[in-house]
Amino acid sequence: MPGFEVLYQAAALCLMYPDDDFRARLPLLREAAPQLREFADHAAVTPPMELAAHYVEVFEAGQEHSLYLSAWREAAPAPSEELYRAHGLETTGEEPPDFLPAVLELTARTGSDGLLTEHRDGLDRLRSRLTAFGTPYATVLDAVCATLPPAHTGS
């Protein structure tokens, strides 16, 4: 996974609620992670209230586009709070450890894409649903999935 740590950290920011801090980081995010420029450019020109309302519509209005890995009912385990602590990250209790932005941040910190690879099938399903919904958030999942090995299709 060499070189993808910055992308994963930037993708984590893109998949969080778009507050003022996110907007302030857009120029840096755009330059640091060229794979996310399309989304960053969209976010930069979209009025803050409209971007926030769209985030709520996409991610908080139901389970159709859940950012929780457990929602995709995979056999792969979710990361534990102990794993986060072992890598210097604290969970706040606001979000469970399987919240995709937290997993992306952990992946950026550890340098290992194992958790993302284990949940590749669910990430692909989420990406497909976001694409069908027509949201720019699909491009964030496109960039993340492009860094991972293909999903295991079984034999």
Q: Would you write up a description of this structure?
A:
It comes from Streptomyces violaceochromogenes. InterPro entries: DMSO/NO3_reduct_chaperone, NO3_reductase_chaperone_NarJ, TorD-like_sf. Keywords: Nitrate assimilation. This is Molecular chaperone TorD family protein. It is a single chain. The chain is mostly helical and 155 residues long. 58% of the residues lie in helices and 0% in strands. It is built from 9 helices and no strands. The chain has helices at residues 5-14, 20-32, 37-45, 48-60, 81-86, 100-110, 114-118, 120-133, 137-145. Helix 1 (5-14) packs antiparallel against helix 9 (137-145) and helix 8 runs antiparallel to helix 9. The chain is globular. The two termini are 26 Å apart.
What is the SS-derived class?
mainly alpha
Question: What is the mean predicted local confidence, pLDDT?
Answer: 85
Summarize the amount of helix as a percent range. Answer: 55-70%
Instruction: Please state roughly what percent of the residues sit in beta strands, choosing from under 5%, 5-15%, 15-25%, 25-35%, 35-45% or over 45%.
Output: under 5%
User: Taking Cα atoms only, what radius of gyration do you get, to the nearest Å?
Assistant: 15 Å
Number of strands: 0
Can I get a quick summary?
It holds the Pfam family Nitrate_red_del. This protein has helices at 5-14, 20-32, 37-45, 48-60, 81-86, 100-110, 114-118, 120-133, 137-145. With 155 residues, the chain is mostly helical.
